[in-house]
Structure to design on (260 residues):
């Protein structure tokens, strides 16, 4: 934590200084044809420092950049197509101050492209989607003699696909309603890992696997106020803790928003 203290073997107290972080976010929506294009941008720059119990101070810097674009367009009188693109770039480096210390640099790049189809029916919305994703992480260690060790991890999801369903359960008078949401997704991943030492290959691995996930939620909407709750998946199987003693909490996450 910021300004935490620790003590070395000689009883000397060392302090961990908190990071300097500058965070900037921007979002905007534009009408394009018969739909809307939403853009989001986030940039973060941090310069954390840390002093351990032996008095060694590490200096670091990190830059994060994220861009999200999502469009929503009608392709019939009520159904919509929702294409999206996400791009993330992160770069960080760090080194203990002093002589004969290694310098570390990490770079992370991620790209996601996909499209959902939003099928709106009476009291039910069904949204299937498909996309591809790419992620590359590299870590470079440069020793005091200038010898480089480079490790690269890549993951390609081709494709990933998902399905979400939203059902309006009942009305809350004339000004609101309660809905139930559930969905799941699956992705076919191709992963690789490679390492080089002083530009000489040191071997690597290649594998593929399938990942899947499910999620459920409840939404409460009344007079422009929206409470969205992500329900703990175990709650549906085990029931309320009050009755079973093993159900866990009802909500995993919640968000409250207001229309204005």
């Amino acid at each position: 934590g910021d300004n935490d203290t620790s003590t070395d073997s000689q009883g000397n107290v060392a302090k961990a200084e908190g990071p300097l972080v500058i965070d900037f976010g921007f979002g905007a929506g534009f009408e394009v044809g018969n739909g809307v294009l939403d853009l989001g941008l986030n940039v973060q720059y941090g310069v954390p420092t840390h002093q351990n119990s032996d008095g060694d101070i590490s200096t670091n810097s990190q830059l994060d950049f994220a861009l999200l674009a999502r469009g929503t367009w009608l392709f019939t009188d009520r159904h919509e197509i929702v294409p999206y693109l996400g791009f993330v770039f992160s770069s960080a480096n760090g080194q203990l101050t002093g002589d004969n210390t290694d310098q570390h640099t990490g770079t992370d790049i991620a790209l996601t492209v996909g499209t959902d189809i939003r099928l709106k029916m009476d009291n039910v919305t069904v949204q299937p989607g498909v996309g591809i994703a790419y992620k590359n992480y590299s870590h470079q260690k440069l020793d005091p003699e200038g010898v480089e060790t480079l490790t690269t991890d890549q993951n390609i999801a081709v494709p990933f696909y998902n399905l979400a369903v939203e059902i309006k359960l009942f009305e809350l008078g004339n000004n609101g309603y309660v809905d139930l949401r559930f969905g799941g997704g699956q992705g076919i991943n191709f992963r690789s890992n490679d390492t080089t030492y002083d530009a000489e290959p040191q071997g690597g691995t290649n594998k593929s696997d399938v990942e899947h996930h499910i999620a459920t939620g409840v939404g409460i909407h009344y007079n422009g106020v929206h409470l969205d709750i992500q329900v703990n998946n175990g709650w549906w199987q085990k029931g309320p803790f009050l009755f079973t003693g093993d159900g866990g909490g009802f909500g995993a996450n919640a968000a409250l928003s207001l229309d204005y």
Summary: Residues 75 and 81 are 7 Å apart (CA to CA). Helices lie at 233-238, 241-244. Residues 1-17 have pLDDT under 50 and may be disordered.
